[in-house]
User: What shape does this take?
Amino acid sequence: MRNKRNFMTAPLATSPRHCPDEEAGGAQKFGTRCVAWAASLALGCALAGCGREQIVADAGPVAETNVSYNVKRGLLLSPATSRFIGLETVEVSERPIRAMREITARIFRAATTNAPRALASAVVPAADAALLRPGVTSIATPSSPVAEVVRFDRSGEAQTGMVEAILQVDDPARTLNEGGFVNVKFAIGSTNAVTVVPNTALFRTTTGDFVYLENGAHFARAIVTVGRSDGEFTEITDGLLTGDKVVVKSVMTLWMTELHNVNGGDACCIKQEKK
Assistant: This one.
């Protein structure tokens, strides 16, 4: 899949959309705790000039950490700085995505002693119905029972783009009542290879989703449009080309460094490049 690049030049948001640990399935995580986010904030601030000397001193002997910024090209880091923050990149690739899709279904016939499976109805997009074929079963979790797709009612598809799915839901303990609701989770496979990035490359803010893209010697923030995610990789429907290189480690540090430069003014170790 070939998309166009969307380099981001608009002002940065001042905060991520969530604490980095709140995204489901590990996507958009930049630490296992909010304290890790705070540590990245401190390191990014250090690279931008506020307290850098103390953090470098605490980290032990390292080479001088130099960063420069250009509004069109992005951040330029010295090799020593890249090593210091543990920056890593990978190539954007193509692969099938097996996304998790949670469906809420309404019970219209409860299970009985002789029929331990309840019947439920759910309205799903037609695109999902093409992947959720009759006979496909959901994934059992502590909060989601196993359900099987029985059939589809497509009478309203032309008008709404939605399809009614009829499900059989395992309920041997007969805890699901008629009129109640149940959530079931299906693994939905992509029929074709799509453009993907590791979830650790993505960062979500109030102004959109973006990655840091290797742009020559610089790292430019590029806004992207995301599709399905399987907990490890996320589909990129717009904003990147296969073969591009994106940052997968120290994304938060780059963001905080750019944030300080754009919204906080010049710092002692950031040099404004000529446009």
